[in-house]
Structures are given as C-alpha cells and as structure tokens.
Amino acid sequence: MNVTITPSHVAGAARAPPSKSYTHRAILAAGYADEAIVRDALWSADTQATARTVELFGGDVDRHDDGTLEIDGFDGRPDVPADVIDCANSGTTMRLVTAAAALADGTSVLTGDESLRSRPQGPLLEALADLGVEADSTRGNGQAPLVVTGPLAGGEVSIPGDVSSQYITALLMAGAVTDEGIELDLETDLKSAPYVDITLEVLADFGVEAHKTETGFAVDGGQSYAPTGGEYAVPGDFSSISYPLAAGAIAAAEGETVRIEGAQPSAQGDSAIVEIVERMGADVDWNQDAGTIDVSRAPLSGIEVDVEDTPDLLPTIATLGAVADGDTHITNAEHVRYKETDRVSAMAEELGKMGVETTEKQDSLMIHGGASELEGATVSGRDDHRIIMALSLAGLVADGETTIEGADHVDVSFPGFFELLEELGVSLERRA
Questions:
Q1: In the CATH hierarchy, which fold is given to the domain comprising 2-17+236-431?
Q2: 119 annotated as belonging to a binding site for a ligand
Q3: Per its UniProt record, what Gene3D superfamilies does this chain match (predicted)?
Q4: Active site residue: 40, 46, 309, 312, which one?
C-alpha cells in the first residue's frame, strides 16, 4: 500500500498504542509462567510473532475481543518446536526467543524475513555457546537462520553491550528458570540501557528478581514467573507517542493542541521525546498523573540529541530537524544502523528526496533544517514502520503532496496509524 499525504493541520486527541517493548516481554513472560493474563497488549505483526512462538513452545495464547490475552504458558520448560520458528520481521522476537529455545531439550530452528535475516545475532549465539548450548548460524555469518540445541543450565558469560540490549534481555529472561541462573559481564558499555530497565521492571512484575552488578547483570535460577493477581497490564508506548507528539509540534492548527492520552511514566527511555520536543521550542504540557500530553505548534530550533539509549527516536528527531531552524545533530547513532533497515542512511536519503540537506557519518546524522525547504516527493518506507511514520510527519508540512511507498508496514508497531492521522485532521489517500 502507498499513502499520499496532503499538507494538513492537526488538532484533537490521540491515544497511544500499548508499548511494543513491554508487550513482547509480557507475552514471553506469561509463556514462561504456568498461566497469566496480559491486558492492554499491542496486537501487531511483531508481537503476534512472539505469541506464535509461545504456542510452538507448548503454550496457548487466546485473544479476547477487548484485546486481553489469556495465556497458558509452558511453565519454564519449552517443548521442542514441531515447526520452524518464523519470527517474520521482529528482531525482538528472534533475540528473546533464541534464548528461550536454548532451554528446550532438543533442537529449534529460527528464521525470519529478508530484513531480519540480515540483522546481527552473533554475540547472543556466542554467549549461548559459552554457556554450553549448541547455537549456530546456518550461514556462519552470525545471522538467521539459527539452529539452537539445548538445554541451557546457566552460568557466567561475557557479552558486548553495544550491539543490542536485547541480548541481555533474552539471557535474563531465560536465566530465571535455569538451574544455575545467569551472570552477565558486559565487555563494552551498554547502549539502549533503558530497554534493560524495562526488562527488569517486567521481570519484577512477574515475580522474578534480576539485578545490576558491578560488571553487568545477574539473575538467580530456579525462579517462577507469576504476576501479582495473575494479571499484567501493558503501558502506553513512547516510541509511538513520538509521532502524534511531533505532529502537534510541527503541524497543530493555529490556537489548537494535540492531546496524547495513555502517556503514564514508565521505564521507557523513549519518554525522552517529550523533553526533546520541548527543547526544540514546542509548547508541551505533560500531566504525568493523568497520563496526558498537550502539545501545540511553535517555531522549532535545531539541537543536539544523543540517541545512545533511544535509538528508535532517530527517525522522528530527524523529521523534527528538517522542520526546525538551524542544525539538528543526532549523535551516538551507529547502532541505529542495525534495525529493520539502516535508519541513519534511510532518513538521510529519503529526506534528501524531499529537499532536506543532511550530513551523514558512521555514528551521527546532521539535519540542516535552516538550509532546507521541505518539498513533497515520492519516498520509500524501506519496509520499516518507523521510517514510514517519520516520513508521514514530514508530509504534513512539505510543499506539495508526499507519497510513502510500502506504507502498510506501520502494522509492525502502530496498527491504525493512518486512521489516527485522519482523526487529527490529516488529508491522505491510500492506494493498493
């Protein structure tokens, strides 16, 4: 599907979808449990991949009409899957489930789509191998398809912290149900650290204790997953909140605001987007008790933003920088190149088609907003939900129509994204 956006002003209320990061962890944590109910779960292409895996491991995921997931888990001991585990486009699924598969007393095979088969899994495979598990890439390049043969008993292992925090999450979640537990020593500084904080929060909510150490993280073995009262509720997603928040900052109608609901504080690092938009000059009011954010349009100025801990915000920040006066410098961004696509290059190239001047380096992206005039163009969504949504924002204020190719991939994290834009007043057209 292609979507063509006509320049528009926005106003009204938007509800944040549930957090994708929390939903992945909650579904798998419920799988590790005997049984659990997950409320307010995001039901997207990515999280459905995790749910399918729980079922392949011997569990059952029943989705009710109100979105509640009733999950019968595999109680810490996954079955050997009767089929290949297809993680589709979900990197989170593949990494978290690779460690879960290592608990099975047998062999699991994991794969995904073309994009996912290009993403790095080597450090996690090496860590599992060091813990006594047979863990291999079929092509010998550290990328899927993966073959994992357990069972995993636990132990101490070192792993880099600057490739993906999801490796740490995967091992901590699996380590809780091993005999020995797992102690992780980080070989390098941890990037995307707030995502591990999310993991620790979800583990605690499921009754599992894990903690930071002087050199990394550790989780004792022999624990059981069981949320208080048998239920867990997923909070709103600040990665997704970034899009209506930015839309209000650049395109709110004169004298109007965009209100985002479902924005309660949590461990999500991407809540930094509120401060970033405010620093750039937008009028932002976050009522944390009520979980609402009100934003209105104002002239924006370029700033410097470090995305070491918030890689998913880079596309949104890049679009804000294209509208702002002066330069917006996004730093510590090399790990953003290893997402569904190389998001650093993708934003530089696609915004470039819209007349935006950029300077791209291996670990940074400079957006020269003051030297740019946003013009409507046909751009590629790169089969990446965050690129698609960020480019859609640019289309709100570009001179002329903007067509985003492959726009249906927003379903990975934000089903209903374009419907939400229309509710806020955006004029758009879908074409098959």
A1: UDP-n-acetylglucosamine1-carboxyvinyl-transferase; Chain (3.65.10)
A2: yes
A3: Enolpyruvate transferase domain (3.65.10.10)
A4: 312
